[in-house]
Amino acid sequence: MTDLKNAALTASAVLLAVLILATLVRAVIGPRFTDRVIAVNMINTMAVAIIAILSVRLKEDFLVDVALVYALLSFLTVVVMVRLVLVRHWRKAKCTKSEPGEKEAEEHGE
């Protein structure tokens, strides 16, 4: 592999690492849970890209398998996190929603 290609791959991996750090700050700051979910998804996607770059740079085929497994785990992580958000939203909606006349019945002891 040429030196220019190696330099480009290394520079790409370093740039992605810096972007991961910037996205990590966003994940910590938030402010909403959905912002954190998106930031974690971005971090995982960039990590998969770095692993793929390393696979080409080091000429190691097994790293492609590692990248695929990591991408699958990343997807499952996001699905679980979104499920948690939905369950929390449904519980909050269920608690705030009441049937007409329900409060009056509770007040009168019915």
Automatic annotation (TrEMBL):
GO MF, one example: sodium:proton antiporter activity
Lineage: unclassified sequences, metagenomes, ecological metagenomes
GO CC term (a single one): plasma membrane
Main location group: membrane
UniProt name for this protein: Na(+)/H(+) antiporter subunit F
Keyword set, alphabetical order: Cell membrane, Membrane, Transmembrane, Transmembrane helix, Transport
Transmembrane residue ranges: 37-56, 63-86
Membrane-protein topology: Multi-pass membrane protein
Organism: bioreactor metagenome
Annotated compartments: Cell membrane
InterPro entries (alphabetical): MrpF/PhaF-like
